[in-house]
Every structure is written in C-alpha cells, then in structure tokens.
Amino acid sequence: MYQIIRTGCISWALGQLGGTFFRSFILVVFTAFCSIVSLLPQIEWSLQWGKLIHTIAMTNAAIQYNLKYVFYYQILGKYSPLQLMIITIVICTFISMFLSSLMFMISLYFNHILAVSITAALTIMLFFVVNIHPKIRYILAKFIPTVWAKVVQVNSPVLGYYWVPSIKYMFAFLLIGNIILIILILIKVKKCEFNWENEDI
User: Fold this and answer.
1) In angstroms, rounded to a whole number, what is the distance separating the alpha carbons of residues 33 and 51?
2) 81-109 vs 167-191: helix axis angle to the nearest 10?
3) Rounded CA gap, 129 and 76, in Å?
4) DSSP readout, 68-100?
5) Cα–Cα nearest to 119, from 96, 136, 142, 92
6) Most buried among 30, 67, 152, 200, using CB within 10 Å?
7) From first to last of its 201 residues, what are the pLDDT tens digits of the chain?
C-alpha cells in the first residue's frame, strides 16, 4: 500500500511486473541447474561435450549404457546443446512471465479465484496435450504455452506430426502475449481504485 501511495499505481504495477520477470528468470535458471545436479559427479569439464551428446543422440549408445536421459538428434542438427540450453531458459522465462502476467491481469479485471483457476488449467493442460493423439496434440500445442518447455522436441515428429510449434512461433506468441497483458494491466491499474480494508494486518 505504502509503495503505491509513494510511487503511483503505474510505477507500482511496472515494479511488480519487473519483479515477476526477475523471479521467473531466477526460478528457471535454478531449475536448469537442478536438472544437471545428478550429472555433476560424472561431468568432464571440456568444450567437446556437445559432440558427446550428438553421438548419443545419433546412435543407440543410450540403450547400450542404460542412460536415463533422452536426446533428440533432429534438433541438434540446427542448434548446439549450449544454444538449446539458452533458448530453453529464455522461452521458459517468458512462459513463466506470461502465466504470471495472465494471473495478474485476470485478478485485476475479474477475481483471484478465476485467475488461479485459469493459470492452473493451463499448467494441467500440459499433461493432457502430451498424452493425446498427435493430430490433436499438434493443434492444441499451439495455444498451450506450458507445452513449449519441450523445446528439444521442436524438430522431432510423432507419428508424422511436428507437434511442438517452431521456436520463432513461441517467441512471437510469448512476446506479443506478454506485451498485450502488460498493456491491459497498466490500463486497469491506472483506472482502478484500491480498497485498503484490513490494511494494517
């Protein structure tokens, strides 16, 4: 409350959105780090690790050595493993930002319960999309951003369908979507009056 009074509603909203982006980025980087923690004892510090992953993806070495990690060779023909990691972190950050902004916007225009319900539904839809028939999956995956965290499967067809949208589509959708949500948030914040009931609790 005191921050809004001191800085104004627009500045407060921009601060919230900036904080959301920063927290999203930190969370995604932390998640990426956690995904490789189990590999740390076996990691060899070398600039040639991309060749190893490419070899595993192109051969049946994963089966021979009982590796539990899946490597999609199709995408490795277009991007290096390091590039893919950076792209994935950026896309996942924008996905998290999109969901946060969507929840913020719905809370302002409607109510908190609806905001939580819709964002939770988008999250749960990930499991529905992944397990449905590829033909339907191809259509739904274009509108469910939570699915796009599977960036490595962009060039990997399932029963003949490239069901994960292109990286350009993801970036365009998330960029435009976030901009629209931020504009809607700022418009509403500029016009609305905050209710300070129980402000000292």
Assistant:
1) 21
2) 30
3) 24
4) -----HHHHTTS-HHHHHHHHHHHHHHHHHHHH
5) 96
6) 152
7) 444 444 467 777 788 888 888 888 998 888 888 877 766 666 666 656 566 666 666 666 666 666 666 666 677 777 777 788 888 899 999 999 999 999 988 988 888 899 889 888 888 888 888 788 777 887 888 888 888 888 877 866 666 666 788 889 999 999 999 999 999 988 888 776 655 454 444
